[in-house]
Amino acid sequence: MVGRVHRGAAGRAGGRGPGRGGWQHADLPPADDAAGWLRGRLPDGWFVDVPEVIVDREEILVVGTLPPLIGEFEDSDSGRADRAAAVAGRIARFREQTRDERIEIARHAEHRYQRKVAWGARLEDAEELFTTLSVPVMTRLRQSERIVLDTLVDAGVARSRSDALAWAVKLVGEHADEWLVGLREAMAKVDELRVQGPNT
């Protein structure tokens, strides 16, 4: 096992590059082996298991689980607060101590896969992502769809239509995870069959 790789609908190709429109989808190398490549590059002591690797057209996100905290914490409000602070401190220490090496690994990965590399760490129930991309997505919405976004803004759920759209996408992802996993697996199967087919 070399790590879990999640790919969006465009995980096979896409992104940035030369020309006014940036890289065309066919211009980018595939990133199917990104988890294996990163496992070979990551120091052995960083994570307690293989990292999760998530790939889309623009970005490779690497999230690993840090070694557990040493010592007991009281089962009280103050003890739980101390534990939460210790978790935050451990993640912050990992981020600071590994910064230079993560930058170097990311530089090589970005050259190999033509995608930006972002990092994250999790410990117990906490997870923090470091400097991930925020990519604008252009879309056209009908009035009924705009009203949904405006309702979220008016209710204080989101600050703007773009925030409301991001919130809605996140909500769908949380509640449709099993369906999305099945869809990605089906797409990967289509890719395999396409490769096995006759050349034209």
Structure, explained:
There is one protein chain. This protein is α/β, with parallel strands linked by helices and 200 residues long. The protein has two domains: 1-135, no CATH class; 136-200, no CATH class. It contains six helices and five strands. It has helices at 34-41, 77-97, 99-113, 143-154, 161-175, 177-196; strands at residues 4-7, 52-55, 59-65, 116-123, 126-130. It has a five-stranded mixed sheet. Strand 1, helix 1 and strand 2 (52-55) form a beta-alpha-beta unit. Helix 4 (143-154) crosses helix 5. It is globular and about 55 Å long. The two termini are 35 Å apart.
Give the topology string: H per helix, E per strand.
EHEEHHEEHHH
Number of strands: 5
Task: Specify the overall morphology.
Answer: globular
Question: In whole angstroms, how far apart are the ends?
Answer: 35 Å
Main-sheet strand order equals 1-2-3-4-5
Helix content: 40-55%
Mean pLDDT: 82
Total number of helices = 6
Alpha carbon gyration radius? 20 Å
Biggest sheet features: 5 strands, mixed
- Count of the domains: 2
Low-confidence stretches: 7-24
Strand % is: 5-15%
Instruction: Give the structural class.
Output: alpha/beta
